[in-house]
Amino acid sequence: xxxxxxxxxxxxxxxxxxxxxxxxxxxxxxxxxxxxxxxxxxxxxxxxxxxxxxxxxxxxxxxxxxxxxxxxxxxxxxxxxxxxxxxxxxxxxxxxxxxxxxxxxxxxxxxxxxxxxxxxxxxxxxxxxxxxxxxxxxxxxxxxxxxxxxxxxxxxxxxxxxxxxxxxxxxxxxxxxxxxxxxxxxxxxxxxxxxxxxxxxxxxxxxxxxxxxxxxxxxxxxxxxxxxxxxxxx
Length: 234
Known about the structure:
The chain is of the alpha/beta class and about 230 residues long. It has helices at about 10-25, 40-45, 60-70, 100-120, 120-125, 145, 155-175, 200-215, 215-220, and strands at about 5, 25-30, 50-55, 80, 130-135, 180-185, 225. Helix 1 crosses helix 8 (about 200-215) and helix 4 packs parallel to helix 7. The mean pLDDT is about 95.
């Protein structure tokens, strides 16, 4: 049975990742900063024996190392770095929220690489050997014109751009070990972050990303993919 670990799995895209992979019989390790006794993720874990829920605050080195110790020796075929925050206030010049910006970097960039580093040996010990970073087209510098209608979003955009570079470096760094690092844009999705006006449901987005991730890991490695199988400019 293949194993997938998903960060930020308590809602939105992370929850849908957990649901779909669980339905396909994967062993799912779903992590969240706060593990609720009730709620959709808890219900999923109760309904499916192949789903376990772990506490993980990606912004905490102690929390991340604690999870790594707990999972030592357990192969993880796919590691999904999904945790992210979107600071909605202070996104205009003259009103920039610098504290929120720092918090965004801590979670969206450092949190992702912190988890990837801590669980790299688990991934390398698996059959699939895949790390997936959930980014956004809003982090593309080359295609900024395609997404500028979403607003300046200084904090979110810059953290996703930094995440992209971090994962591109990581892809080169671990390529010799057979580990594939994939950066993915889920599209504009109807989640708490994307809003109700988004064009995709979580089911559509995750189904699309899963089709991409089922491809040849060597061809996927180190590229910035969209949920629909096209690529984004960095």
